[in-house]
């Protein structure tokens, strides 16, 4: 619908009420990239609605962005923040990388260097906090994430939490991405966390629970040969810590599992979500779009799933800010990871793409804008963009 005023003469045969409503909706269209103030409480009423026919279908929140690489130099902090502003992202989780390549290694990415160990460290979390203090991003809301935990050594996690709280009081409001089972790292010394060790997480999980801090866990479902080989690991976490806010990264999918039938995957995710009301799913990483969301036969199934469980889904890119990346890489990653969002109904789009789930999960005092209704001849309805 184009902007400007409309009259009954311009729409012969339409009821005058519909014409007036159409004009009001057109007039309420907000700029293509709404600013942070559009998410302030009380701003989500007309005329500040989000016009999906004119504004981007990409997410305004990136819940999964690694500002630090596995090795080598990072893209400068302020430059990454510029990527976000220029693409209309207003909310971001600042991840480091909890496992780094050795400082004397020429490697910058672990997959290029099998046999080289990746080592858990606090370095990136300190770097991110220091950068945020030195250059607070204007017009954006940033949440610092603790990425250091070695879940195989739970006694070290509580110490790390308290150290970061002492050095940067109240700044870290998220934990993750932390690895429970990550097959891609097996060649670099990573092993699945011993099942018995999960029960020993209780002290640090209690701290997270008391402080309302979510924990985002990378836990592969399995491999092509055994699609649910590692399901029991995540199930153990969910059973032992039902009151913690837990985010399952990538819906359990990975490069090692790209042929799991969509119907089976969706049935599994639905069952887990139904049994665990504090669980959220992360749908970041282009592997998911490439192998699942964009498949013609799978896409309708995932659209229905995301619409049904729209209050349990978090968007983002899983962008890794290594020095070989630039704005075009980030822009492409955001568009690819957001493609599925353009097909969702308005309620799901508001919950996921416009950040309502994220605000609720973190207890932030922001509200996602309402979506402008799309009006058609003879009807006034809010529709999905198929």
Overview of the structural elements:
- Helix content is 33%, strand content 14%.
- The chain has 386 residues and is of the alpha/beta class.
- The strands form 3 sheets. Strands 10-9-8-7-6-5-2-1-11 form a 9-stranded parallel beta sheet, sandwiched between helices.
- The chain is globular, with a radius of gyration of 22 Å.
**Strand arrangement, major sheet:** 10-9-8-7-6-5-2-1-11
- Main sheet attributes: strand count, strand direction, barrel closure: 9 strands, parallel
Q: What's the N-to-C terminus distance? A: 17 Å
Q: Considering DSSP H and I runs of 4 or more, what fraction of the residues is helical?
A: 25-40%
Radius of gyration from CA coordinates: 22 Å
Compute the average pLDDT: 87
**What is the tally of beta strands?**
13
SSE pattern, N- to C-terminal: HEHEEEHEHEHEHEHEHHEEHHHEE
Low-confidence stretches: 1-30, 377-386
Structural class comes to: alpha/beta
Approximately what portion of the residues adopt beta-strand conformation? 5-15%
How large is the count of helical segments?
12
What are the SSEs and their pairings?
Layout: H1 16-27, E1 61-66, H2 77-87, E2 91-95, E3 99-100, E4 119-120, H3 123-134, E5 141-146, H4 154-167, E6 172-181, H5 202-211, E7 215-219, H6 231-240, E8 246-248, H7 262-275, E9 279-282, H8 286-293, H9 299-308, E10 313-314, E11 319-320, H10 327-338, H11 346-352, H12 356-362, E12 374-376, E13 379-381
Parallel strand pairs: 1-2, 1-11, 2-5, 5-6, 6-7, 7-8, 8-9, 9-10
Antiparallel strand pairs: 3-4, 12-13
């Amino acid at each position: 619908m184009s902007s400007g005023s409309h009259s009954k003469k311009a729409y012969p045969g339409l009821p005058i009420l519909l014409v007036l409503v159409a004009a009001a909706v057109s007039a309420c269209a907000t700029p293509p990239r709404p600013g942070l103030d559009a998410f302030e409480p009380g701003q989500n009423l007309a005329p500040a609605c989000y016009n999906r026919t004119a504004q981007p279908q990409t997410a305004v929140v990136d819940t999964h962005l690694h500002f630090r690489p596995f090795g080598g130099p990072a893209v400068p902090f302020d430059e990454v923040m510029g990527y976000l502003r220029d693409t209309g992202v207003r909310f971001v989780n600042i991840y480091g990388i909890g496992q780094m390549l050795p400082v004397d290694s020429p490697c910058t990415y672990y997959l290029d260097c099998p046999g080289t160990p990746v080592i858990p460290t606090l370095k990136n979390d300190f770097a991110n906090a220091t950068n945020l203090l030195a250059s607070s991003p204007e017009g954006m809301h940033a949440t610092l994430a603790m990425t250091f935990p070695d879940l195989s050594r739970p006694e070290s996690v509580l110490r790390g939490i308290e150290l970061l709280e002492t050095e940067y009081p109240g700044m870290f409001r998220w934990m993750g991405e932390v690895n429970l089972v990550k097959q891609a790292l097996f060649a670099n010394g990573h092993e699945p966390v011993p099942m018995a060790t999960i029960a020993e997480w209780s002290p640090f999980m209690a701290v997270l629970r008391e402080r309302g801090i979510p924990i985002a866990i990378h836990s592969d479902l399995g491999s092509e040969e055994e699609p649910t080989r590692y399901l029991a690991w995540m199930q153990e976490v969910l059973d032992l810590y039902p009151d913690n806010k837990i985010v399952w990264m990538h819906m359990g999918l990975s490069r090692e599992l790209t042929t799991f039938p969509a119907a089976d995957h969706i049935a599994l995710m639905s069952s887990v979500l139904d049994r665990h009301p504090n669980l959220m799913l992360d749908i970041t990483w282009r592997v998911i779009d490439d192998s699942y969301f964009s498949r013609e036969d799978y896409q309708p199934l995932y659209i229905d799933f995301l619409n049904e469980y729209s209050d349990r889904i978090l968007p983002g890119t899983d962008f890794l800010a290594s020095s070989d990346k630039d704005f075009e890489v980030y822009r492409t990653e955001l568009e690819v990871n957001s493609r599925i969002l353009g097909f969702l109904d308005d309620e799901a789009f508001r919950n996921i793409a416009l950040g309502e789930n994220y605000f609720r999960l973190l207890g932030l005092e922001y509200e996602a804008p309402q979506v402008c209704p799309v009006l058609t001849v003879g009807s006034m309805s809010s529709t999905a963009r198929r």
